Amino acid sequence: MACFGPSLNNTLAQKDAPDRKALCVGVVVVLVIRLFGLCFNFHIHLHMSLIWTVPEQNPRTKKMRLEIIQITKLTVFSIRLARSPPRNQLRQKNLFNVTKCSMAWQSAGDFLGVKVLRHTKSKKTLYNNFELFRVKDAGIPVEMLDFKDAVMDFGWEPKGSRFALVHAENASSTRTNVSFYDMNKTTTTVTKSKNTTATVAELTLLETLKDRGCNHLSWSPAGGIIVLAGLGESSSGSLEFYDIDANQQIATKEHYRATEVQWDPSGRSLATCVVQPITGGYYKYQMDNGFILWSFQGKQLYQQGFENFYQFSWRPRKSVLTAEEKEEVVKNLKKFEKKFDRADKDRARALYLEETKGKREERRLIRDRLTVLRQNYANQKKTRMELNGGYDSDDDSNYVTKVVVTEFTISTKEEKV
Questions:
Q1: What is the reported pTM?
Q2: Which of 117, 132, 206, 362 could share a disulfide with 180, CB 3.0–4.6 Å?
Q3: What interhelical angle do 333-355 and 323-331 show, nearest 10?
């Protein structure tokens, strides 16, 4: 049987109506085959077809097309990549000795990762390998990645070519390793005149984080930031915020008994939740129900608990710009840079004026008071002169100025002639 991992389930929730229809077809087929298999187990060969779609936009016609994955399980496990409509087969990969399979699309549809759990001929030993399809490249080449460890989770970076794996020696381990890979490799050629940077289609291991209390990966929708979470009863609820671009840990936090991690669509904040099954019944961790909001830097923003808490969901946020518009912005970035800098300065100026409003009011009152005092002093000039016998103390001509020059020897130095 083929089963879908967490990354695929996350992808399912983001698709539009045509994709959900295709998913319903696949689910119906699986249910029918399961019931059929219970009645005729080990007496027939099962033929199973699971269909999953990912949208792809045709830049010429501006219409949506669909990529279709079809998995067939007979004596040979076959992965077929087709386009519909029409249903033209683009790529096929045959696998042997397959026990279980799960797959996940990269958000833009550029890559497809298929995790295959295989067994030896004796079926006593299991091992993992990944079939990584470069969907947008000519001929759809496939990269293979073998793993001796048990793999707990797999996830693509949104709008990028990187992915991460949680793996350990056995699936029950509480301490795991997290490895980051890139489907592309950046090479730099140094010459006397300039440095040339080129990107090569080559699977590259970026980094492996050892001994983490992690069993779940959650990429930021903006990319670059990932949360390594320990979810479920067997974990402590640890949350490690990691910047893959800088290869450094941002923060380490904890949400005890956390069962879910959900990013805000903008990638600026995320929520960790403790939810109970919606099916009802007694839930022994009901006292921990609730959610915590965090910034992408790991700062706690808000916390709320509930006696009964079943689901948390962010409001959907549609992308404001299309891919072509984003390219146009990048191309004319210098032109927009001046506009944004001016807006930033205006905003900073308005914030400064608001913060110093009290001080400026105090300064105005002092200046007004000094003006009144100067005016009173000028009005009293005639009275002062009468009291001083006609002498005007404010007239500089009534004073004699003497210049006195005083010389001081600061230091002396003797030089031999």
A1: 0.64
A2: 206
A3: 80
